[in-house]
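call fold target=asparagine synthase (glutamine-hydrolyzing)
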Amino acid sequence: MCGITGWIDWKLDLTTQADTIEKMTETLALRGPDASGTWLSRHCAFGHRRLSVMDPANGAQPMVRPMKASEQHDCVIVYNGELYNAPELRQQLLSLGYRFQTSCDTEVLLQAYVEWGPACVEQLNGIFAFAIWQTDEERLFMARDRLGVKPLFYKLEDGRLFFGSEPKAILAHPEVDAEVDVEGLAELFIIGPARTPGVGVWRGFRELKPGQSMVYDRNGMRSSTYWQLKALPHEADETTTAAEIRSLLTDTVERQLLSDVPLCTLLSGGLDSSALTSLAVSYYAKTGQGNVHTYSVDYVDNDKHFQSHAFQPNSDAPWITRISNHLSTNHHSLQIDTPELIEALEAAVLARDLPGMADIDASLYLFCREIKKDATVALSGEAADEIFGGYPWFYREDALLADTFPWSLAGDLRGDLLSKELRELLQPQQYLAERYEQAIAEVPQLAGEDESRRRMRRMSYLNITRFMPTLLDRKDRMSMAVGLEVRVPYCDHRLVEYVWNIPWEIKNAGNREKGILRQALEGVLPLDVLYRKKSPYPKTHNPNYLSAVRSRLLARLDDPSCPLLPLLNVSQIRQLALSADTSSHFPWFGQLMSTPQLFAYLLQMDFWMRHYKVKLVL
């Protein structure tokens, strides 16, 4: 995994701009701590930071290879990601006469472009964001993986295109200002910490959408969608469906276990991570690679303060021990204390370049930082709930019938937190409704489906295209901020395509959340682990956390220089803070983020506006 950045300019000679592209590149040093490289031509400049995973001795970027038809012209690539079908593609290209100088997938991808041009993306299985400059046509081609695991931001302005793995690379250009307009504020206050696909929050910034590619040349910019979910009939019975899921998941995990550096799995003791760990252990045993290392995270004194509820029915700790002992993994457990969790809120903002999921981000950042001491690659169970229908809102009638995103059922309460002036400017309810209608309009329809099936297809689509990207973005930013590559096998597009079209009554086999996945994994996991009720990513239950974020927020609101003051209904937030206790539940975002996370988010926003010197353009 790596960090990429670049700059296309038709008016300026970029060979004179080495200092600028190096400055943009260095902002991504944490994503790629192992090596740095730049490439400049008259109208194109590329920068790359490398995290070495495959073929560490080779594969330096930017990488240059000649065009197939002419040795006089080259293709140049900067690439962030992993191709899990690189061996097959390499063999196919060898049969077509190509020769390789490295064993890394960067060269496979570049040669695939030389052979197939933009259509190469249809051949790829992996997680990626890349840019290729074709010198003969003076043309930039960029693409992002199908599910959007790897980020890619850009800004087009006055005939110049800037791009980067993270906004910070673009913001490092001396002529790009740290500005946020009305749309950006609406995303932060109404949609956040999620984002509308394609919206970059910073003024003029866009994000290439999942499954999209883009061409930029002197004729302008043209984007196209090379992959999207399609509604197709599912004819297989329950038994056949379970067998296919198991086959696809096993193949996916084995492909993603390939690495030339230390690899581990993240283990919560739940279905999703336990399944990946079990499949990894089986593969390691088959290939003679020894024991798998596993990692888990919890919070100091959580055992004293844990309160079970519908979203989090029991503690993870006993289940982690159960599955680790069963699989004989080398397990490592991390505990986070409240002070370091508070301190890491700012590091999480710097990783995202935006306020985010508060302590949910900060804890993951700390967790990944600890893992990085021993490993460079980790497998995570992210995305199984969105794909297989594991969240509570798949089963709650109010969420299924709500005319809004099920993780944002309190849009009116959010609006009440804003100042009268900002509320009138943003029109919160209208903005949220428009974004929801935009999402619903995209849902593929299948002829003959009844209303119940259409409703579940709609819910699945919202989760895969709107909620899952929030968690994937979190996973990428927090892990890459410490130079750790996290792979997400449940995001294999073949698996997603297949499961997307499974009728709900089969997905929900046995009237259990993710029932068909459980059935597919029978024999892979012990029955008690296999049928354990879903428990989400752990969060702190320590009342000291609420006390800390509340007191800090109240102190910020007392500071006349606080940049949030003109944006917030300060009296409303003070009242909420002063009345909050451990039983308070402001339904702010999703199943994990309530009153303490709202306070922490506002703290993050205050820090973000100060640190980035954000200028509001309203």
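return ok
The chain is about 40% helix and 15% strand. The first helix runs from residue 18 to 26.
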